[in-house]
Every structure is written in C-alpha cells, then in structure tokens.
Amino acid sequence: MLNILWIVFFLSAFIIALFKLLFLGDQQVFAKIVEAMFTQAKAAFEIALGLTGILAFWLGIMKIGERSGFIQLLTQGLTPLFSRLMPDIPKDHPALGAIVMNIAANILGLDNAATPLGIKAMQELQTLNPKPDTASNAQILFLVINTSSVTLFPITIFTYRAQLGAVNPTDVFIPILMATYVSTLAGLLAVAAVQKINLLEKVVLSYLIGMTLCVAIPLSYFAQLPQQEMLAQSALLSNIVIYSLVITFITGAFYKGVNAYEAFIEGAKEGFQTAIMIVPYLVAMLVAIGVFRACGALDLLAELLRILAHSLALDDRFVDALPTALIKPFSGSGARAMMIDAMQTHGADSFTGRLVCIIQGSTETTFYVLAVYFGAVGIKNIRHSVGCGIIADLAGVIAAIFIAYWFFG
Prior knowledge:
Strand content: under 5%
Number of helices: 17
Shape: globular
Mean pLDDT: 86
Radius of gyration: 22 Å
Helix content: over 70%
Structural class: mainly alpha
Oligomer: single chain
Low-confidence stretches: none
C-alpha cells in the first residue's frame, strides 16, 4: 500500500503540472516541483539529525523503565481484564501473557518491544484457533485494541514537536490521552457488540469505570476553566506527569538494584540507531508530499474539503489536518510525514499543527497492523476486524477534532 501511495504522489504531481503547463500556461510549476524535491530532502535529513538527541534520551529512559520491571507490573495489572475479555483463552495459556505484555509495551510507547510481542501473541492465539485460516474472536479483539493506539506516553510525537519548534512540545499530551481513550473504547464496544462480550461483567466493568474516571476527572476539571487557563494548566499537568514518569523509572531501577545509567546508555544507543534508520523513510515521504504540494494538488484537495465543510456550515480549520487522518490507517510513515509537513507549513503551535499530532496519537495504522499480525500466522479470512478497526479510527479522528477545538480553538 505504501508503495502505491508513494508512486501516486509523484505521478499525480507530474500529471497536474503538465496540465498546468499546457493548458494554464504555468511555466514555473516544474521549477517549483524540482525545488521542493531538493528542499524537502534536505529538510528530512535535518529533522532526523535533530531528532537524534531527543530520541536517544527518551529511548534511554524507556529502557530503564523496561529493566525496572514496569512492563511486568502493568502485565499483572491488566491480566484479570483480558482473561475475561477473551474467555476462549485458558487461564494459564502463554497467549494471555504475550497479549498483556504487548499492550503494556504499547502503553509505555516501547514500539521495539511491542511489535515482536504482538506477533508472538498472535502465534500463541493461533495455537488455539480451530480454523487456522480464519481469525478467531480473541485474535480480532487483540488486533482492534492494537489498532486503536493504546499509548499512554506518545514520546515520538513530543520529539517531532520539539524538533519543529513547539514552545511546549507536550501541550498535546492531555488531548491525545482523551482522543486515544475514545478510539480504544469505540473499538472495544464495536468488537463486544459483534462477539457478544459481556462488558457488564463485574471485573470488566470495574476496569472500564476506572479508565473512564481517569479521563473524566481531568475532563470535568478542564471544562470549568477559561481556555487560556485550561491550556496553561494542561501543559503544567503534562510536564509534571512526564517528568514524574522519568523519576518513577529511575527510582524503580534504584529499588530493584538495576544499573540505571547502563540501561539508559543501552536505550540511548537504540535511539541513535533509530534516528539514522528513519532518514530514508523521511526523505522518501517528505519529498513525495513536497512535490504533491508544489504542483498544487494538496491545496486543491484541501480546497474541495473546505468547500464541503462550508456547505455544512462548519469551521474549516480542521481540513488541513485531514490528509494525515486519511493516510493514517494505511501507512504510519506516510501519516508521520503528513504530520511533519503540516507542522512545517502551518507551524508546530498552530491549530493544524496541534490537531495533526492529536490525530497521530489517537489512531494507529490499521491495515499495516492487520497485514503484519495476521500475515505472521497465515490468516486469510479476517472477518469483522477491519470494520471494527475503522470504527475505532473514525472515533479517534472525530474525537481529536472536537478536543483540538476545545483546547486550542
């Protein structure tokens, strides 16, 4: 899918530029496209270079958290919930442990650990699957929870915001938590409706009420504040929570006798390698989006969506963030490039710049996750997994838009 998307950007830019040259007499359009190619290639490298230090720091901190046993702690806390959401899994089956560890790694933003754990969980679930080529109920629920982006600390988004000049890179933290809660809850409700899962069961209901309160309490508090005060206090709370996470991980390492410094260095090395690895992907996607924008195609698409918004009497500021939302289910790197492009064009602290970050943090690459996880176990009949995943994505995007207007409108 990413290959097709990448080719479409270049070919459509060429066709539109040719049309402008031959029929509209625009003799500068190809010069703009070529300039965009070189400019965006340079910008992609500079962004990746600037990310190196921040990525190294945060992956170092996350490695301390991993070594301190916080994944295991989250695993113990979540096991009772998933054992009831997936009653087909025997109590002591290794699939349950792999599922919960994957969710815990996603919550902490440990992507490197989450993906292999997710594949392992799918493989373990496949051993319980009576129809090996058809997705089981447990596999679908697990996939939809993954695609709804259960991430408590979206460190990568903070990193890009910092690199692109945001005054307070973490000011989208609370909005992202709210939006990702909505997408996860929507995905869970969709699967529960199809699979007839009893969400009113005592333990499940207790977890849902607890998670809802964690979102509802700050929501009700912020709702009482004037917008400027709400922005100031949400930024303060975000910074307190994030720094408290750092202190908790370091304190936990000290308590467990873990060498926090060595763990940090190991994680920081991974951060450095990650920054180098993303250079080709950033160059590929930012250049493709750059030529697509330079020929006027992106502006034309935005204008059509803006006309539709006006016809519905809607504020049209959300339109510039929609390309990120539309690409996100298909391509993580494509959506990330769209997010960066929006922040470069409109500013990291603009309404659009913040909204694309909330969208990026509230949903996941549904079709990519589906391809990787189901492909790893050879499943061909995916049943209702796509429908439920898209419901979660759509709920996350709609929530992100409303929350962005509330916080930053």
